[in-house]
Structure formats: structure tokens, C-alpha cells
Amino acid sequence: MFPPLPNPSVQPSASKFGEQDLVRRSASTVPQPARQLTPMAKLIDVSKCIGCKACQSACLEWNDLREDVGINHGSYDNPLDLTPNSLTVMRFTEWVNPETKNLEWLIRKDGCMHCADPGCLKACPAPGAIVQYSNGIVDFVHDHCIGCGYCVTGCPFNIPRISKADNKAYKCTLCSDRMAVGQGPACAKACPTQAIVFGTKDDMKKWADDRIKDLKSRGFKNAGLYDPPGVGGTHVMYVLHHADQPKIYAGLPENPRISPVVQLWKGLTKYAGLTAIAAFAAIGVLHHVVMGPNRVTEDDEQNAKRLAEDRS
Ligand code: SF4
Ligand code: SF4
User: Fold this and answer.
1) Probe ligand 2: pick from 109, 113, 153, 231, max atoms within 8 Å of CB?
2) Cβ(149)–Cβ(50) under 8 Å?
3) What count of Cα atoms within 13 Å lies in the side-chain half-sphere of residue 70?
4) Confidence (pTM)
5) How deeply is 278 buried, as exposed, middle or buried, from its count of CB atoms within 10 A (0-12, 13-18, 19+)?
6) CA angle 74-48-215, nearest 5°?
7) What are the tens digits of pLDDT across the range 124-138?
């Protein structure tokens, strides 16, 4: 059994990470951070989820967000999709296992996966609108967002949503504000079955191993960890009872990758920029060789003096 997370501290504490810990910043560069934070991760054990939506409510509550009362679409999914307010949603799937003929109810908490190689950040053209910290958090900085929606296109999990209210992109922050003061994400705190747990990525992988062994001993021979290598691994991972078929969990991608268009766009802009810099440098050198250095003549000096006197 996973030990309960400690209760939130009531003592204000200094921020544990900040600007100095950035490893990536959209459309700009950052200096190499002086330290490497411990990579953190959230582990979502789909086999332990009871679909109570405590995590979904805790997310709204912590972020002070509200959804309008919706309508029943004949499913437990509500809202039906992620929105700029609902940064996480539960996705319910009824699946008939072809081997056992049993009806299985697969419930997956959807939201940002905090990819090690984030397509959203690579696609974003606004300097500093998306940042990545060395602990793995990918965060949106709304003051810098221009609402172009490229992050939506760049994300292999189709996660960010653009708000009609302020034309900015929104997604799960992995509770970066809570983490900065030593707290775990609100969803993990609220989950009554500890289907969501949080800690260092290494520890979460060890917990996942134990859960997978347990599931295998109970007949789920394909139980496994979802930590897709195509995006360099993720800082939100799933334990799946049918890890050989992620798609059955409401379309979880089998092998998510950053779209080649985004890679091409990144490559082109980078190489176009470098080529332009090299061309300007070459023109400068050529000018210096052919024309010689700029020299101020005696006449120039006299003219400048006259102009200054006329103005005074
Ligand atoms: S909408 Fe997305 S891609 Fe566009 S600026 Fe905002 S964060 Fe960047
Ligand atoms: S899941 Fe999408 S929005 Fe989240 S870090 Fe990965 S690419 Fe960005």
C-alpha cells in the first residue's frame, strides 16, 4: 500500500525552484542551470481508479476554476473534453476483453503528460510563453502567450486549450505553485484510493513495478508502465492493465511523437536564423576587406563641430 502523502505544511516556505532552474524556454534560449533538480513524476494507476472525480474537483478547486453546469450526454464523461477551465478530465470506456469476454470499465484521468521533449514548447513561437524546469514540469506563462494555438498543434496528446475569454492557452501545470513550496499536486492529495501518487520519477517507477507485479499475479499478463520514449518519457505516467493496447484507454496514443511538421519548422527557423547571422557576419568581413575600416576624416570632424554649434 502506498503511504499517504504528508499533510500540507501551514508554514510559508521559500520557493524551491524558479527562473534559475529553467532548461527550456519557447522561442528563446536559457543559460545552463547551475543545478539539476530531482526529476519528479505523477503516477496514475488506472487499475486503482474508481472514477469518483475527486481529482477533477480538486483541480478546479485549487486553481479556483469553475465549469458551467453541463448536460448529460449519456456518459459519465463531464465535461466531454478538456477545456481552459477543466485542466484534467476523467475518460470512461466500456471495453469487452476479447479473451475473457468480460466487460471492463476503463477509466483514465486525462491531462498534460509533462513530456521530457515537449512538442507544445517546440512549436510555440512566443518567447517565454512555455517553459520547462529541470524537475520536468512544463508550464505556460500566460503573460507571454499570444494565443496562436501552435502549442495545440505541437502537442502529441492534444492537451492545451485556448480560452475564448482571454485568448491564452491553458493546461495542467502539475501544480507548479504547490510544488514550489514542497506540496504534491492537488489531484494526488484528493484521490481516495491512491490511484494517483506523486514523488521522484525513480520512486514512481519502483512503485509502478510493484503494482505491475501485483496485476500480473492477478491475471493481467500485459500490465505495464506507460512512459512513452517517443517524447523522451513523461513526468505523468500510467500503470495500465493492458499496456500492450494504450488506445483502448480513450485513445491514449501508442507511440506519441512530435509531428514532423513541428520538427521541420523548428529546424528551418533555427537554420534560417543561423544562416542569416552567418551571412551578415560574412558581409561585414567582406566590407572591411574591400573598403577598409571606417575612418573619421578632418572634414567630418569640422562638419560635426559646426552642426553641434548650430544646434546650441
Ligand atoms: S497559444 Fe500556445 S503556442 Fe501560442 S503563444 Fe500561447 S502558449 Fe505559445
Ligand atoms: S502533453 Fe502536450 S501540452 Fe503537455 S508537455 Fe506534452 S506536448 Fe506539452
Assistant:
1) 113
2) no
3) 14
4) 0.83
5) exposed
6) 120
7) 999 999 999 999 999
Mean pLDDT by 10 residues, the chain (312 residues): 49 76 96 95 97 98 94 92 98 96 97 98 97 98 98 98 98 95 93 96 97 97 98 98 98 95 70 56 66 73 80 66
Q: How far is the CA of 234 from the centre of ligand 2 (A)?
A: 9
Cell of 64: 479556483
Q: Ligand nearest 160 Cα, by number?
A: 2
Nearest CA to ligand 2 atom 4: 112
Cα first-last separation, the chain: 84
